[in-house]
Automatic annotation (TrEMBL):
<dbReference type="GO" id="GO:0050852">
    <property type="term" value="P:T cell receptor signaling pathway"/>
</dbReference>
<dbReference type="InterPro" id="IPR003599">
    <property type="entry name" value="Ig_sub"/>
</dbReference>
<keyword id="KW-0732">Signal</keyword>
<dbReference type="GO" id="GO:0001817">
    <property type="term" value="P:regulation of cytokine production"/>
</dbReference>
<dbReference type="InterPro" id="IPR036179">
    <property type="entry name" value="Ig-like_dom_sf"/>
</dbReference>
<dbReference type="GO" id="GO:0009897">
    <property type="term" value="C:external side of plasma membrane"/>
</dbReference>
<feature type="signal peptide">
    <location>
        <begin position="1"/>
        <end position="34"/>
    </location>
</feature>
<keyword id="KW-1015">Disulfide bond</keyword>
<dbReference type="InterPro" id="IPR013106">
    <property type="entry name" value="Ig_V-set"/>
</dbReference>
<keyword id="KW-0472">Membrane</keyword>
<dbReference type="GO" id="GO:0005102">
    <property type="term" value="F:signaling receptor binding"/>
</dbReference>
<dbReference type="GO" id="GO:0050863">
    <property type="term" value="P:regulation of T cell activation"/>
</dbReference>
<dbReference type="GO" id="GO:1903037">
    <property type="term" value="P:regulation of leukocyte cell-cell adhesion"/>
</dbReference>
<feature type="domain" description="Ig-like">
    <location>
        <begin position="34"/>
        <end position="147"/>
    </location>
</feature>
<protein>
    <recommendedName>
        <fullName>Ig-like domain-containing protein</fullName>
    </recommendedName>
</protein>
<dbReference type="InterPro" id="IPR007110">
    <property type="entry name" value="Ig-like_dom"/>
</dbReference>
<dbReference type="InterPro" id="IPR013783">
    <property type="entry name" value="Ig-like_fold"/>
</dbReference>
Amino acid sequence: MRLHEIHHRSKTQVNVKHLMFVLHLLTIVPVLHPEVSQEYPVYPVVAAPGSNITLSCFFPRSETDLLFNLIVVWVHGDDMVHSYYKATDNMEEQSPAYKGRSQLSPDQLAVGNASLRLTGVRASDHGMYTCDVANEQGRSKKQIFLAVAAAYREPELAIQTTCDSIILTFLSTLGFPQPTVLWRTKTGSDITNRSNTTMVLKEGGKHYEVVSEMVLKQSDPHNWTVTFEMRLELLNQTFSRSVSLRPLPDCCGTSVEPRNRLFLLTGLLPLPRVCSKTRLLQGRF
Ligand SMILES: *[C@@H]1O[C@H](CO)[C@@H](O)[C@H](O)[C@H]1NC(C)=O
Ligand SMILES: *[C@@H]1O[C@H](CO)[C@@H](O)[C@H](O)[C@H]1NC(C)=O
Ligand SMILES: *[C@@H]1O[C@H](CO)[C@@H](O)[C@H](O)[C@H]1NC(C)=O
Ligand SMILES: *[C@@H]1O[C@H](CO)[C@@H](O)[C@H](O)[C@H]1NC(C)=O
Ligand SMILES: *[C@@H]1O[C@H](CO)[C@@H](O)[C@H](O)[C@H]1NC(C)=O
Ligand SMILES: *[C@@H]1O[C@H](CO)[C@@H](O)[C@H](O)[C@H]1NC(C)=O
């Protein structure tokens, strides 16, 4: 799902038991005004796994409002993230998923700021949050979409040559979640299923290391131009790298040499000429 496609999604389902509890409290709030709803637009917030984030929520108040009559409920799907009433945090109904990770600031609540601080962001925190506030001014709701994502680093290209093939390997790290990977020929045909891509979670689930390998046969020089594409839809991040290789004559011995490894950052052009005893290549990106 793209961030920009997140508009008005269905209202977050509030734990029924909890909602009844909130409504019960509402009836004892001295002056009950009609519901003030502020559900649109939905602001997307991006946080990397393991990071800390503050989800903003402000509510109307008057100088004379008592903190004691304020109720704040933060929910994510069916999970109760944090609730506050009678001037204190109510952790009893908090989902275990958020235990010890959520925080409201009492000083800020007193001035109309019910922003939630969430520490140690996890992949499962991804999704829509609702900040539901009731006070002497009435009730207000705000929705915030928290996208748990991290941008990938520029892919690095490594080229290995053997006597009969060229192996292109792209490496990209520090991103989250998994990107889509696509390989194309010069003419645009999808040859992704001839590649070998591995995506491994690193640092206890904080990010992926993506390694994608394509083997080109030396005997098939007409398709030595290939394009590697990597896309992280959530952040609209796209890398597209074309690699053109062409053999140069008279550098081909007959013996089989060990693989010749070259590490290059993409974007460096032109690729320096490489002459192993068996192959000489020139590449362009
Ligand atoms: C997140 O907050 C916690 C507690 O406030 C702190 O110990 C930790 O260093 C913070 N982490 C990051 C990535 O800032
Ligand atoms: C609202 O409260 C949060 C902490 O709960 C704080 O980080 C933020 O700066 C406050 N915003 C304003 C505008 O005061
Ligand atoms: C790759 O995909 C094409 C069509 O999408 C299919 O015809 C071909 O058999 C697949 N090759 C492999 C090795 O999976
Ligand atoms: C893909 O790469 C992994 C790790 O290098 C290897 O074990 C596996 O056999 C490869 N698969 C294919 C289809 O090449
Ligand atoms: C090379 O081209 C042939 C046909 O033109 C195609 O079937 C093959 O998949 C291509 N291989 C690569 C690595 O592009
Ligand atoms: C995604 O990125 C491309 C190029 O970086 C940009 O042209 C396009 O407007 C972006 N789309 C959205 C919806 O942000």
